[in-house]
Automatic annotation (TrEMBL):
Family as reported in the entry's similarity comment: Belongs to the bacterial solute-binding protein 7 family.
Protein's UniProt name: DctP family TRAP transporter solute-binding subunit
Keyword terms, alphabetized: Membrane, Signal, Transmembrane, Transmembrane helix, Transport
InterPro entries to which the protein is assigned, alphabetical: DctP_fam, TRAP_DctP, TRAP_DctP_sf
Signal peptide: none
Keyword field contains DNA damage: no
GO biological process, one term: transmembrane transport
Transmembrane segments: 7-25
GO cellular component: outer membrane-bounded periplasmic space
Keyword Transport attributed: yes
Organism domain of life: Bacteria
Length: 356
């Protein structure tokens, strides 16, 4: 009996000991996995992210989602502070502020990158992306890749794209349906030569100005119209100072996600991974949501105002496209044949949907 008890005690002790050892080493491993040294993020990192639009827009919401994801994934060690509505830097200022490190991250409209490389204006070409599904093809493919690569020499790290959608026209005095209707009208544009040329070819005038100065200039009549996506027209209340809107889907509005490159390389590898993962998630989220956001806000504009809305018919769209066609040839020496032919390929692929 004594022998049996002895064996039992021996077995139980052995068992307990092996549990202890197993648990001990296991928990040590887990501790290590979350240890500051292992994770590489030893001090809190704060990334200032400046943008110019309202919070309830595709960019505003994606920026907040990005900040939340980074916070969660880094266990609160990497904080992204989002400054919307140009509260930190205006359109004109933000790119310089990024380059010299006063802000770490921005997401300017691609039209505003003309100064970095004129290639970016390829995305401003009229009807460059015939439909919203064509946009994803272009940005996820060679066009997007070659544009992001063009930033490398400028101390800018291109991390990806978010989309706002396709642009519409608003104006004050009459409905803009045929190219002739542009005559005598002056439109606010983002600072981009292609956009300037676009309005010239349509027979109108244009004036570049900051996004957050547009409302005031529309209200005072300094410009009679503008082009933008529904979410920007809604969130900045342009529809309250304009009487006509044309659903033309004639141009693309989207954003390049940019970080100061020196800053990017100074980050611990773990933080860079977290940022890249969060970008991938928000790019997907943005692509799934920007259309419905613009659609919902179009219903709100209709509900909250008497603005007269005209949707271009296929025949009317063809008139615009014909008038605007020369811009592709004129722009070819700047963008290069390759980029233009990639845009042309996408246009051919989605042509049927454009004229549905
Ligand atoms: C504009 O200036 O119209 C847009 O770039 C604003 C924005 O960032 O969506």
């Amino acid at each position: 009996m004594k022998q049996i008890i002895g064996i039992l005690i021996f077995l139980v002790t052995g068992l307990l000991l092996s549990f202890y050892i197993g648990f001990h080493f296991n928990s040590k491993e887990q501790d290590l996995a979350f240890d500051d040294e292992q994770s590489g993020i030893r001090k809190q990192i704060v990334i200032k992210f400046s943008h110019v639009v309202a919070e309830n827009t595709p960019k505003g919401l994606a920026a907040q989602k990005f900040a939340d994801l980074v916070d969660q994934k880094s266990n609160h060690r990497v904080k992204v502070e989002v400054f919307p509505n140009g509260s930190l830097y205006s359109d004109k200022e933000e790119l310089e502020a990024l380059k010299d490190g006063r802000v770490q991250m921005i997401a300017p409209a691609t039209s505003k990158l003309e100064g970095v490389s004129s290639k970016w204006q390829v995305l401003d070409l009229p009807f460059a992306f015939p439909t919203e599904t064509a946009i994803n093809d272009g940005l996820n493919g060679d066009i997007g890749k070659s544009l992001l690569a063009s930033l490398n020499s400028q101390n800018i790290k291109g991390l990806g794209f978010w989309v706002n959608g396709l642009k519409q026209i608003t104006n004050k005095s009459h409905a803009v349906i045929h190219p002739n209707d542009f005559k005598g009208e002056k439109f606010r544009i983002m600072s981009s030569n292609v956009l300037k040329k676009q309005f010239e070819l349509l027979g109108g005038q244009s004036k570049p100005m900051d996004f957050n100065e547009t409302y005031r200039n529309l209200e005072s009549g300094n410009v009679s119209g503008e082009e933008n996506t529904i979410s920007n027209i809604y969130s900045k209340k342009y529809y309250r100072v304009q009487d006509y809107m044309t659903i033309s889907n004639h141009g693309f509005l989207g954003y390049a996600l940019l970080m100061n490159e020196d800053y990017w390389h100074s980050l611990p590898a773990k933080a860079r991974l977290i940022i890249q993962d969060s970008i991938i998630e928000t790019v997907k989220w943005n692509q799934d949501h920007y259309r419905s956001m613009n659609k919902e806000q179009l219903s709100l504009i209709k509900k909250e105002s008497n603005i007269q809305i005209h949707e271009l018919t296929s025949k009317e769209k063809k008139e615009w496209i014909e008038k605007l066609n020369p811009i592709y040839k004129q722009y070819e020496p700047i963008a290069g044949k390759k980029l233009i032919s990639e845009i042309r390929n996408i246009q051919r692929k989605y042509e049927k949907q454009l004229f549905r």
